[in-house]
Inverse folding.
């Protein structure tokens, strides 16, 4: 983890994320307090630095590990998982959404689903749970959101079409008001607004 523990730069955002992740991992490890599971946890401060990661990978004890969680960020994770492959060590990427971090490394896994998987699951859930209601997809003119909006439009269309359902779409303006004509007085209104704002 990029704890940067021996640096005066502590408190950086990456250090804070690493510390919070570490605290959560300790809480999870506490659930294994029975006699059937024995956890020996090693924590390495990568400092989010490739040279430091290389020196950690050179340690003899690394090759004896059963599981590596991290490094937290994609570039470091790819280097570690590729290096650990010859020792049959399972590596887990806790944050990366991209599939690329595990590609070609059969013992590498990731926890966070890709953006496409998230949208697919959301669209399927919306169609199944709220498809008979008044579903409104809001979009913006923000260039950062164009791809996500198009993906939601595509996935909602295909998810709802199979049940003969439709949804409304509206581009929201700067004042942020939804025209009353889009809202239903007789059924529940579900507003989907996948915006980075």
């Amino acid at each position: 983890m990029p704890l940067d523990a021996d640096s005066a730069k502590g408190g950086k955002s990456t250090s804070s994320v690493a510390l919070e992740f570490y605290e959560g991992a300790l809480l999870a490890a506490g659930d294994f307090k029975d006699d059937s599971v024995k956890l020996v946890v090693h924590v390495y401060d990568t400092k989010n630095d490739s040279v430091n990661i290389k020196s950690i990978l050179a340690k003899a004890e690394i090759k004896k590990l059963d599981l590596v969680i991290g490094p937290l960020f994609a570039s470091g994770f790819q280097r570690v998982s590729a290096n650990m492959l010859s020792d049959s060590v399972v590596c887990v990427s806790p944050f990366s959404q991209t599939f690329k971090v595990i590609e070609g490394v059969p013992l590498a896994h990731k926890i966070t689903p890709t953006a496409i998987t998230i949208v697919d699951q959301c669209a399927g859930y919306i169609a199944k749970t709220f498809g008979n209601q008044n579903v409104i997809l809001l979009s913006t003119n923000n260039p950062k959101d164009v791809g996500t909006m198009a993906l939601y439009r595509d996935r909602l269309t295909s998810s709802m079409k199979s049940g003969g359902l439709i949804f409304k779409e509206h581009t929201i303006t700067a004042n942020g008001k939804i025209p009353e004509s889009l809202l239903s007085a007789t059924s529940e209104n579900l507003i989907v607004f996948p915006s980075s704002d």
